[in-house]
């Protein structure tokens, strides 16, 4: 596999980002209207402490992965927390370091502003990703609930 290059999203990445995010949503059996794609893309480039941000991973001349992350306040710390909201690698490159490189990029970016707590969640059936996550992070034991 070619070298993995991870960098912040650029406006010129829109088509590749759209493809990767669509594949990510399909993996989770989810569809979103184009309006949500548009507002998400806009927010990724909106200045603000709590606006989402993103990285894209490239290898072999093509985009092969992406992540979105955002900072938020916490009642448990003076510093913000960093929520790694979305993480996706093309199926044909899984297990080749794309996910780990994207996680590391978020970790390093958060560290630049003193944020130490980078966290995420995944579905319990996502065995491939969980192998990576069990290697690079610790399971907290918390169970998620929501009111959707």
Structure write-up:
- This protein has helices at residues 14-27, 34-44, 98-112, 127-136; strands at residues 5-8, 53-59, 62-72, 81-89, 118-119.
- It has 148 residues and is of the alpha+beta class.
- 20% of the residues are buried.
- Helix content is 34%, strand content 22%.
- It is built from four helices and five strands, in the order βααβββαβα.
- α3 links the parallel β4 (81-89) and β5.
- The model has no long low-confidence stretch (mean pLDDT 94).
- This is GNAT family N-acetyltransferase.
- It comes from Mesorhizobium australicum.
Keywords:
4 helices, 5-stranded mixed sheet, 22% strand, 148 residues, globular, GNAT family N-acetyltransferase, alpha+beta, single chain
Main sheet properties: 5 strands, mixed
Helix percent reads: 25-40%
The average pLDDT score comes to 94
Low-pLDDT runs of 5+ residues are none
Number of strands: 5
Q: What Rg is obtained from the alpha carbons, in whole angstroms?
A: 15 Å
Order of strands across the main sheet: 1-2-3-4-5
Question: What would you call the shape?
Answer: globular
Count of individual helical segments:
4
- SS-derived structural category: alpha+beta
Order of helices and strands: EHHEEEHEH
Task: Record the SSE blueprint.
Layout lengths: L4 E4 L5 H14 L6 H11 L8 E7 L2 E11 L8 E9 L8 H15 L5 E2 L7 H10 L12
Parallel strand pairs: 4-5
Antiparallel strand pairs: 1-2, 2-3, 3-4
């Amino acid at each position: 596999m070619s070298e993995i290059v991870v960098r912040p999203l650029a406006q010129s990445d829109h088509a590749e980002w759209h493809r990767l995010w669509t594949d990510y949503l399909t993996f989770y059996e989810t569809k979103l209207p184009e309006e949500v794609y548009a507002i998400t893309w806009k927010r990724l480039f909106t200045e603000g402490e709590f606006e989402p941000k993103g990285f894209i991973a490239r290898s072999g001349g093509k985009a092969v992965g992406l992540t979105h992350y955002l900072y938020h306040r916490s009642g448990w710390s003076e510093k913000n927390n960093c929520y790694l909201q979305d993480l996706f690698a093309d199926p044909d490159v899984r297990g080749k370091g794309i996910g780990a490189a994207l996680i590391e990029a978020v970790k390093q970016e958060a560290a630049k502003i003193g944020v130490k707590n980078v966290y995420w969640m995944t579905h319990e059936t996502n065995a491939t990703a969980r192998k990576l996550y069990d290697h690079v992070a610790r399971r907290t034991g918390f169970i998620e609930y929501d009111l959707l």
